[in-house]
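Reply to dn_fold:

You asked what the input looked like. This is it:
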Amino acid sequence: MPVCSVEDSSTTPMPRVLLICALACASCSSPAPVAPQAVERSRVAMGSLLRLSAWTTDEAAAVAAFDQVFREFDRLEALFSVWKPESDVVRINSAAGRQPVAVSADTIAVLEAAAQASDWTGGKFDITFSALADIWKFDHDQDNTVPDRRAIEARLPFVDYRLVQLDRAARTAYISKPGARVHLGGIGKGYAVDRAAAILRERGFRDFLIQSGGDLYVAGRNGNLPWKLGINDPRGPAGQTFATLELGDGTFSTSGDYERFFIKDGTRYHHLIDPDRGEPATGTRSVTIVADRAMLADVLSTGVFLLGPTAGIALIEQLPQVEGVIVSATNQVLISSGLKGRLAMLALPTNAP
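and this is what came back:
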């Protein structure tokens, strides 16, 4: 390291000594700290685009953490998928009415949370809606056809969340009725987002964003600003928002009838199926839930959507650490008490069928 040396003033003019020291000491000073930058990566996971962003001075560490998150989504998809032959869900469904199936701790946690959400919503959130999934096709097999009512009614006896029995001690799951089956599409992604947040925190990140489809988690700040999240206009152009909310260390999940749908003979048919009727729910256009856990927000955005605006906003007000925004089928906007004064309305949602 360069060292400042002062010459004898009797032989060297003082101004020269001061100049030498100033130049040398300037070279001794520490480099300016590097400002954090946003590092982003994305890929398809669990059937949706998974987007990750973190503010950091160590891009390599962020990329390594993101890779771990991507691997975790893949691991959970292998447990929860209805399309992977050896998944926990496929094995549970295959053994319906015959025997309990040993499953992972992750699957037990998700099934327990699903049962709680079903109780809260009076059965409107129901993972056994899967009995209707092969006649209402809204996944990659969407065919834009409306099933015959007789076909729907034949499946309704197999839709009942109480058919799913769990044994936490033995870590088994059992469907008590042959032909019934479960689908974790309304909850599994939220669980994965919570796991992703835990991974990023464990690796030392404090300012980050995780977005998977309609499920979004933010922590800390977006650089020097709070995270500002927008609520999609359910009838507006893609990407148009009608309200925004500043949020830190929380989660934001939206379910809407505009995500996977088709219109036939002037009627909108979408993927959020009312388990009591076996048809798409008709009272709501979108529900956004704000909570402290992504899995909680995920199940409630679906459950509240199916409950409808009046019962849905009543449930939100009863639950601690839960807030929400509902757009009804008549385009009315209902805002929970904890968001009033925090939610910025940009415009009324577009009113269209």
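The two ends are 73 Å apart (CA to CA).
Hope that clears it up.
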